[in-house]
Amino acid sequence: MTKSILVTGGTKGIGRAIINRFGEEGFDVYTCSRNADDLAALAEDFKDKFPDQKIFVKQADLSSKTEVVEFSEEVKKLVIPDVLINNTGVFLPGAIHSEPEGNFELMMQTNLFSAYYLTRAFTADMIERKSGHIFSVGSIAGLTAYANGGSYAISKWAMLGFTKCLRQELKDFNIKVTSVLPGATYTASWEGVDIPIERFMKVEDIAASVWAAYNLSPFSVVEEIVIRPQLGDL
């Protein structure tokens, strides 16, 4: 039976790289994004590369609980994924004491609440099936405080706590849970900055790490993947 992966925010960056990596391994894909044109381009590219596999795409803004629930319900009509990747995220720089009003709410809703509600939508079925692997894509900002991190860092610290709790809740049901904590990775968030590209990690390296963690035997789990640029944090 073909295995399946659900990746939120799958049209760019880390999400796109994970879709490509698991696609190479024969997985069907279920994903979402806010941009319909990007989703159409992703679906076309995936079908060209992997004509024997399925891809389901849906336009959704996961900062909205309603749209998280709608997306999850549509996917559940089709499949309970073997792998769930909570990857949707947004970064707005700023200090806690001075960042624009609304930054905190937007980043918590997008970076944390989306993962909470989406995970809850699938865990009961995974528990009944007694299998699954849930990855939460956080950040080293969830490990180390830094200037101008503001609400983004708060959301990523909370994401790490969420994932640790989930690991304890689900381990007895043969469901693996892994936190992915990347440093500076060259994605759209960094476009235009005056920093040499070789100072960044490649999205393909994050995807390879996720695949390696997934591919262990049932007797082991990677609880945290901390991956940084070779020359250190930016």
Automatic annotation (TrEMBL):
MF terms in GO: oxidoreductase activity
Keyword Metal-binding: no
Record keywords: Oxidoreductase
Enzyme class name: oxidoreductase
InterPro entries xref list: NAD(P)-bd_dom_sf (IPR036291), Sc_DH/Rdtase_CS (IPR020904), SDR_fam (IPR002347)
Pfam families given in the database record: adh_short
Signal peptide start and end residues: none
Superkingdom of the source species: Bacteria
EC number: 1.-.-.-
Entry similarity comment: Belongs to the short-chain dehydrogenases/reductases (SDR) family.
Protein name in the entry: Putative oxidoreductase
